[in-house]
């Protein structure tokens, strides 16, 4: 494997982390109150004894944005892994369904699907991934010029041990994954410093926009779901979950 230089890593992260922040900011600028109220659990917030509309909007919006940020940053980590494997050993994006990239090293050809964290997907999505691995392996093993082929599920963070699944693929997590695609045992920590590039400036703009949104949502929420200054939880639950059409 070819060593990835710190300058190459710095340049890629600097350029691409900006995309994450731009997507994050765009998300908060385009959210609608109805979208947030329909996707989050009103029963949970009632159970937490929230009585202030502003606190409710802050809590719901934080929960909503947290899910969105995990998805956006997960995509950044997956893109980073493709960049790293391309520089270190000539890896390339795969044309196979459900496979992110392929590369060869020490007599093996690897097909790799990347997930940001260990808690990814539901059972149906996991079964779909297993099926994608099996299909890709079958096709590649039929090729005469292809030697040993192995499927790998790469997880960007976490400290679970490497395991071989009964479903026919290897699961590599955290430091071991970054070492697997780069040959650098310290890459998983080398990534941290570049991630802070202009983070303070980006976050200040994001927080400013989010605060404006909380104020706007609070006003809209009080107009629609409050009576005499109190949250009308029954009305909120109807809006969130009411869908049964009774005969007239």
Count of helical regions: 10
**Extended strand count:** 8
Shape: elongated
Strand order within the widest beta sheet? 1-2-3-4-6-5
H and E string: HHHHEEEHEEEHHHHEEH
- Gap from first CA to last CA: 72 Å
Structural class: alpha/beta
What characterizes the major β-sheet? 6 strands, mixed
Query: Strand share of the residues?
Result: 5-15%
Radius of gyration: 23 Å
Instruction: Domain count, please report it.
Output: 1
Helix content range of the residues, please? 55-70%
Q: Uncertain regions: pLDDT < 50 for 5+ in a row? A: none
Mean pLDDT: 89
Describe the model.
The protein is of the alpha/beta class. It has one domain. It contains 10 helices and 8 strands. The chain has helices at 6-29, 33-39, 42-47, 53-89, 123-141, 175-182, 187-190, 192-195, 199-225, 233-241; strands spanning 92-93, 101-105, 108-115, 148-155, 163-164, 170-173, 226-227, 230-231. The strands form 2 sheets. It has a 6-stranded mixed sheet with strand order 1-2-3-4-6-5, sandwiched between helices. Helix 1 runs antiparallel to helix 4 (53-89) and helix 4 (53-89) runs antiparallel to helix 9. It is elongated and about 75 Å long. 22% of the residues are buried. The mean pLDDT is 89.
